[in-house]
């Protein structure tokens, strides 16, 4: 990599400590230059910069999921959109890639994986963190062996449309208050729906709920 022509990066994350940590790490690497930072899609798109790669989370104050990718891509194309996030969900990963993201890496990834991903997408090569790629391959390989519904799928089928909507938002990481605002209902209503979801799925925590959603591939992010 030519140090005189570094990969120009725009960092987008609503957490300042994350942006500062990523910038500090990249400042120690050869061939990278952080040219700007932003805390939201709106703040990023207002910048007068031309990055080679936009490193972004997909849970931001003004956009979530594939909307983050399309919003940034529309402003900074042909820059590559590289997702660095805590959200580990196959259905979201597929939507993010379909929306045009060149890379997808979790914040728990190794430094080597992060740097390899940045270099790959800067050269126009798609990169998905190896552990995520292998998990997808295992899942699809297993699902190809049969088409019958699992017990989890049967249980989730008992959720009504409003409960399934709350399930989607919960898996995306929204709080009860955020779900109430997005769904235009009261906080008490969201809490009641969440309680019914947990009861029907036989789980007690968000982590358990997310694991069930992952197993069945049930979460539809299209309208989130």
Structure description:
By secondary structure, this protein is an alpha/beta fold. It folds into two domains: 7-139, Rossmann fold (3-Layer(aba) Sandwich), CATH 3.40.50.2300; 151-216, Orthogonal Bundle (Arc Repressor Mutant, subunit A). Helices cover 51% and strands 15% of the residues. It is built from eleven helices and eight strands. The strands form two sheets. It has a six-stranded parallel sheet, sandwiched between helices. A two-stranded antiparallel sheet has the order 4-5. Helix 8 (161-172) crosses helix 10 (187-201). Mean pLDDT is 81; it is low at 138-154 and 218-224.
Describe what is shown at a glance.
The chain has 224 residues and is α/β, with parallel strands linked by helices.
Main traits of this protein?
224 residues; alpha/beta; Rossmann fold; 6-stranded parallel sheet; two-stranded antiparallel sheet; 11 helices
Q: What series of H and E elements makes up the topology?
A: EHEHEEEHEHEHEHHHHHH
CATH superfamily of the largest domain: Response regulator
Low-confidence stretches at least 5 residues in length (pLDDT < 50)? 138-154, 218-224
Spatial sequence of strands, sheet with the most strands: 2-1-3-6-7-8
The name CATH uses for the topology of the largest domain is Rossmann fold
How much helix, percentage-wise, in residues?
Answer: 40-55%
From the coordinates shown, what is the CATH architecture of the largest domain?
3-Layer(aba) Sandwich
**Strand tally, please?**
8
CATH class of the largest domain: Alpha Beta
State the domain count: 2
Please tell me what the overall shape is.
elongated
The average pLDDT is 81
Helix-and-strand structural type:
alpha/beta
Major β-sheet annotation: 6 strands, parallel
Share in β-strands: 5-15%
Radius of gyration: 19 Å
Distance between the termini: 39 Å
- The number of helices is 11
């Amino acid at each position: 990599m030519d140090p005189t022509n570094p990969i120009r990066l725009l960092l987008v994350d609503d957490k300042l400590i994350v942006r500062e940590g990523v910038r500090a790490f990249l400042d120690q690497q050869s061939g990278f230059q952080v040219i700007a930072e932003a805390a939201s899609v709106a703040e990023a798109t207002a910048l007068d910069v031309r990055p080679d790669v936009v490193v972004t989370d997909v849970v931001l104050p003004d956009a979530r999921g594939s909307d983050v990718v399309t919003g940034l891509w529309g402003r900074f194309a042909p820059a590559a959109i590289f997702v660095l996030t805590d959200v580990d969900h196959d259905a979201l990963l597929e939507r993010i890639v379909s929306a045009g993201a060149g890379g997808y890496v979790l914040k728990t990834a190794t430094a080597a994986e992060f740097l390899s991903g940045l270099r790959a997408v800067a050269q126009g090569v798609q990169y998905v963190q190896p552990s995520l790629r292998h998990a997808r391959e295992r899942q699809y390989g297993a699902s190809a062996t049969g088409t019958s519904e699992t017990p989890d799928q049967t249980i989730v089928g008992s959720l009504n449309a409003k409960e399934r909507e709350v399930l989607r938002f919960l898996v995306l990481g929204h709080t009860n208050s955020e779900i109430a605002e997005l769904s235009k209902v009261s906080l008490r209503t969201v809490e009641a729906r969440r309680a019914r979801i947990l009861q029907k799925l036989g789980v007690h925590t968000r982590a358990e709920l997310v694991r069930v959603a992952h197993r069945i591939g049930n979460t539809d992010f299209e309208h989130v």
